[in-house]
Amino acid sequence: MKKKNLLLTILAGFTALAVSSYSTGPAGQGANRTGSNSTSAGCDGPGCHAANNTALSVTVAITDTANTTPVTSYVAGKKYRLRVIGGTTALSQSQFGFQVSAVRASSTSTQAGTITAGGTSTANTTVKTVGSLQIGEHSAPLTATGAGMAWAYTANLYWTAPAAGAGQVKFFAVINAVNGTGTVSGDAPNAGSLTIGESTSVNNVENNVSFKAFPNPAINTININADGIGTGNVTINVYDIRGKVIGTQNASASNNMLNTQIDCSKWAAGMYYVQIAKESSSSIITVVKQ
Known about the structure:
20 strands; 1 helix; mainly beta; 5-stranded antiparallel beta sheet
């Protein structure tokens, strides 16, 4: 019995050591958990955390560096913001870690473009190499936005698109929502991916409109401000984390400014996407309802 207890103690020590080392990023231990290069997409591998939890949604967004509007195709050699986004309305974990990789869709073991740390809200993020692939990940636990059972998990890096002719690029990402206890108990990971194609256009005009949504998280009302939007009618659409439209309203911009409000008092707690559309341009802001 003493030998059995000793063995269990040793195994527990090894598990705690593995979890502790992963708190500064799995790539530092040679682990790619994103799902690229035929790896397991999630944090349920040996010495890791738990099985994927569908209560956590995980997406990847590639946007211009000047705004948060996702792009569906890339221009070769151009620099973009790479955003790993998670959300939940059923979990209480207020911290998280993440990994993301960028590969050719035709060969998920081939690096596509270059990932670099930097941008806004990028504290505790880094880029490491595992095998032939770059892995963007946390260097320390990141803090989520929200309260109670509704949290938004967002990590920002930069991605410079590959040279012309690379074709479709696939981004693999994983988020592990944690409670900060230093153990695997209560961890909630999940994975997601995004595929974008190469643009055939040589013109890509930057959108210099500055959007703000506050308070965020919100309880009853969200204020929407836009500077540099011009004059005219604006459509505001609200999407839940599954992409379903839950509300639409119209507003009017004047003197290059938009100031309006959204009533969110009847929304369920959780993360939402607010799209502001004017003519052929649009921008998306992530908001959280408490």
